[in-house]
Every structure is written in C-alpha cells, then in structure tokens.
Amino acid sequence: MKYQLYYWPGIQGRGEFVRLALEDAGAAYDDVARGKGGRTAMMAMMQGGEKRPPFAPPFLKAGKLVIAQVANILFYLGPRLNLAPKDEGARLWLNTLQLTVTDFVKEIHDTHHPVGTGLYYEDQKPEAKRYAAGFLDERAPKYFGYFERVIDRSGGPYLLGREVSYTDLSLFQLVEGMRYAFPKGMKRIERKIPKIVAVRDRVAARPAIKAYLASERRIAFNEDGIFRRYPELDK
Amino acid sequence: MKYQLYYWPGIQGRGEFVRLALEDAGAAYDDVARGKGGRTAMMAMMQGGEKRPPFAPPFLKAGKLVIAQVANILFYLGPRLNLAPKDEGARLWLNTLQLTVTDFVKEIHDTHHPVGTGLYYEDQKPEAKRYAAGFLDERAPKYFGYFERVIDRSGGPYLLGREVSYTDLSLFQLVEGMRYAFPKGMKRIERKIPKIVAVRDRVAARPAIKAYLASERRIAFNEDGIFRRYPELDK
Question: Dihedral of CA B129/B133/B136/B139: which sign?
C-alpha cells in the first residue's frame, strides 16, 4: 500500500511525527502538499465535498480511508509498520502515551502563541515570555519526567520495554525539537531524563532514520513550526 | 463488567465525556474518587507502583486494563457500550472526531488559563480576555462549524448519520458547557449550528441521559471545571 500524507509544506510540525514512522518502516508514501498542486489538493479535501472531511492537517490517505489527527494516524499505522504491538491492551497503552505526546506538543506550540493562533508571535511576546517560563520550569519537566518513569517501569530501553514503538520515535522528535527551541532550558531538563536521551540516541542511530535525517525530505527546524527558537523565551 | 472511573471529584471536567457514555449505556461503574478514600487511591495509581501509570485523570479501570485519555477511553468503550460502529474505518473516523473534541476542550479550558495552568485565573485576567475574544469570534465558530458540516455530510441527524455515537454525547456536553460559560457568545454561535443544537436536544431526551442529568451524579457546572462562567470573558 502506498500512503498519501497531507501536511503543510515547509515545516516539520505535527506531520513530522507521522513522517518519522513512515520513514523508519521504509513505507512508500507521497508527501502530497510538497508536490505540484498538492497544497490545493489538501485544501480541497478539507473544504470540498469529502464525506468525512478532516478538520486540519496532518491527515493520511490509506486506500479509501482518510485518517486525521496524529495519534489516530499512528494508531492505524502502528501494527502495519511494525511499530506497535498487536494486542488490544498494549495498543491502548501506547495510544495513551501518544495522546500525552499530543498534549505536550500543544503546550510547546503555545509557548509562542499563548493568546491565540490567529495572532502573530510579535503581538503576544510578553504573554509568551510568561508562558514559556512556567513551561520550562514546570510543564516540560513534568511531561518528560513522566515518560522517563514509563521507560523505567517498562524495564527499558524503550517506552514499552524491549521493542521500539512509534511513540519512541515521537520522543526522539520531542528531544530534537526542544533542543532546537530551548537549548538552555533543555540542557537543564536533560540532566534528569537519561533514559529518554538514550531513546533519542537509539532512534537517531536507526539506519532508516539516519538516512531520512540526512536527506532533503527532512525539513529543517524553523520559526514557522511548532518548535521555534526565540532566545527571549529560553531563560 | 463493572468499570472504575477515576476523576477529580467536584467537577464535571474531562471526566464528564466518559460519564455521559457510561450513563447513556446504563453501564455499571464506580466514580471512585467521589467515594471514601477514592482520591487517595487515584493519586496512588498515578504516582505509585503501576507498571503503566496514567499521566492524569480521567482514567478507567476495566478488568486488568487501565486506560487514560478521554478519546482513548471512549475508543475502548464505544463498541462495548453500543455507542460506536464496529468496523475499523468508521471507528477511526469517530476517533478523528473525538480527538477534534479534545482539541476544542483544551482551547475552552485555555480561555481562563491562557498563560499557565499553574497560575490562578486572577493572575491572568487581561490575557484571558484577549484569548476569549478570539476564541468566541473565530475558534469556537470554526470548531462548531466543522461538526455542523460533518452532520450535514452524514445525512444526519447524528455525526455518523442515523446512529448515535459517543461523540454525539460529547457534542451535547460542548453545547451545555458553552451555554453555561458564554451565554451571550454562544447565543450568537448557535444561530449557525441548528444541526448541532438538534443533536443536543436528541441527546438530552434520551431516557438514561435524562435520568442522569436529574440525579445527584451529575455535578453542577462550577468555576473549578473546564467551562467557567466569568462574565468579563463573554462579550
């Protein structure tokens, strides 16, 4: 099966959590909106005549199915890409973890957009500073501390124990993104999450991921995405 | 199977989306943290020795499984409570919709806590006013407009067409909560979402829901929950 991924071109954003899974598994996929006419096609799927229109990108077309929401896409892909266990209890547990990643990502996004997604960052800088301070002191350590504990409880080295899962790939992305956006704050946080850093290193060393990261398919972090480097927010 | 629901006592909050499904189906469940010693038991499941600790309430114990995150709990319960279709494509579609409810709920929460969950509302009132204005003008109409379109495309009267689902129960809760928190703003919005209001009315008329709403099990809306009535935010 060849998949079609629909996501904003030009940023890693939420789409990257799906890309990492597809790339790790060597799955065949088109990154539709990065191709000619792709963005128009993407908008048409949301605003056109689809019987089951997605609210927002990313979404995945898999045969006749159109699946939106990162955690939902990964829930679908997981067993098919060999990045999730097959039994129901373990899949639901992995989904719990991925949905906690989703919550974390939203809070990361809100460090630069606390007052509203419709406004520019420049119009909410004082609020962003206040938000980011609490984020680096409390929220990010809380989320990372939770995942660290989960790895510890599983026996490691991964979230589920001995087998890598799509949520480990998401953890890799969280570490990479936080290092980009908050180099100082993340340095402090990393002292307390050695198991997560080890997951990051293991994922980075996986041959398909390594090849992907070195390719043009991996978009560089930038200030239009989720993880933005605004030094004034990184105290 | 008797379920154990764990959620903060005293508020509807995110737990209510699960309660509505359990109540509608007449499922047997304990609302653990509202009973004696229940809150301590809930904290212990998060911070104690669980092999798969939840990050936050609500979570559901179903036999040996512990399932956290509202959309994940409902994904599990849906077919078991006859509130979701059984085929994979339709379940994933319903999950897409429920995860869009999750995103909406987070933005509703942030109307009173835009700068940080660790701070009091009183410490972020100017920011909340700014956030709430954009929320009522753009975000809430966008989310509701989306669900209205989904009902329209399905042929109605529900999100999936002729059969009610757990996400219709969530839509009911969104309308009730928005009417409580933003009576003026919601009045304007409701003019454009007649199909959602019709879902709300159908759900309210379901015998088990009607009985639940009239019972002591339904906690009243209040200013500790997701939906808070702060008149200064409701322009």
Answer: negative
Parse chain B into domains and list their residue ranges. Answer: 88-206
Question: CB contacts < 8 Å between A and B, how many?
Answer: 122
CA distance A45 to A103: 26
- Closest residue on chain A to B62 (Cα): A89
Q: Which fold has domain B88-206?
A: Glutathione S-transferase Yfyf (Class Pi); Chain A, domain 2 (1.20.1050)
User: Closest to A106 (Cβ–Cβ): which among B75, B106, B146?
Assistant: B106
Q: How far apart are the first and last CA of chain B?
A: 46
Task: Give the one of B71, B130, B134 whose C-beta lies nearest to A99's C-beta.
Answer: B71
* CATH class of the region A3-80: alpha beta
- Taking residue B207's Cβ as centre, other Cβ atoms within 10 Å add up to 9
pLDDT per residue of chain B (235 residues) written in tens, 0 to 9:
999 999 999 999 999 999 999 999 999 999 999 999 999 999 999 998 889 999 999 999 999 999 999 999 999 999 999 999 999 999 999 999 999 999 999 999 999 999 998 899 999 999 999 999 999 999 999 999 999 999 999 999 999 999 999 999 999 999 999 999 999 999 999 999 999 999 999 999 999 999 999 999 999 999 999 999 999 999 8
